[in-house]
Amino acid sequence: MTVVFLDRDGVINENRMDYVKSWHEFHFLPGACEAIALLTSAGHQVVICTNQAGIATGSLTIELVEAIHRRMLCAIVQAGGRVAGVYYCPHSKQAGCTCRKPGPGLLLRASQELQLDLQGAVFVGDGLTDIQAALAAGVTPILVLTGRGKEQLRLAADVITTPFLVVEDLSAAAKIIMQGGICVNC
Ligand SMILES: [Mg+2]
Ligand SMILES: [Zn+2]
């Protein structure tokens, strides 16, 4: 069993530059629910970790974000998937909190609260801050090319010196995780 951390925007649903502000603006990416169902059926634990600074800036409220997450989880369950927890950072970049990615705070809090064994854990994200958060938490990063992935990959060489896996989308990431034995150094 592997713990699979997932970023939300750009991995599970379409990324929006101005935040997902309603369920109406939440659009699942093709195959995302099915990929989570696949991971669930193989016994992996899925945890979502997302920055939602729109709460700090007033574009979103906590109630709204949590309502969107309830509906997201409902759709995932209907597809046969299960999510052990959804963790979000409500702070602005300037707040200097420890939970906002690239910090590892969300992952570490999840692993403490859910008593996760991070041995072999992975973090699938579309941002370099996801890769950085993964590395800071000691889990294996995987970059997807959905969402901001393609543009972020172009910037990676200047920012991240550790090798990381790059895959097309969450379905491809799930297939690699199912095969086990992710090692970027071999
Ligand atoms: Mg993202
Ligand atoms: Zn935070």
> CATH-wise, what's the superfamily?
HAD superfamily/HAD-like
Q: What is the top-level CATH class?
A: Alpha Beta
How many distinct beta strands? 6
Q: How many helical stretches? A: 7
SSE string:
EHEHHEHEHEHEH
Task: Describe it.
It is built from seven helices and six strands. It has one domain (3-179): HAD superfamily/HAD-like (Rossmann fold, 3-Layer(aba) Sandwich). Helix 1 (32-41) packs parallel to helix 7. The mean pLDDT is 95. The protein has a six-stranded parallel sheet, sandwiched between helices. By secondary structure, it is of the alpha/beta class. The chain binds magnesium ion and zinc ion. Zinc ion (ZN) binds at residues 89, 91, 97, 99-100.
Quick structural summary:
Zn(2+) binds at residues 89, 91, 97, 99. The protein is α/β, with parallel strands linked by helices.
Describe the SSE topology:
Layout: E1 3-6, H1 32-41, E2 45-51, H2 54-57, H3 62-78, E3 85-89, H4 105-113, E4 122-125, H5 128-137, E5 140-144, H6 149-159, E6 165-167, H7 170-179
Parallel strand pairs: 1-2, 1-4, 2-3, 4-5, 5-6
The chain binds magnesium ion and zinc ion.
Magnesium ion binds at residues 7, 9-11, 15, 125-127, 147.
Pfam families: Hydrolase_like (PF13242)
Subcellular location: Cytoplasm
Binding site for Zn(2+): 89, 91, 97, 99
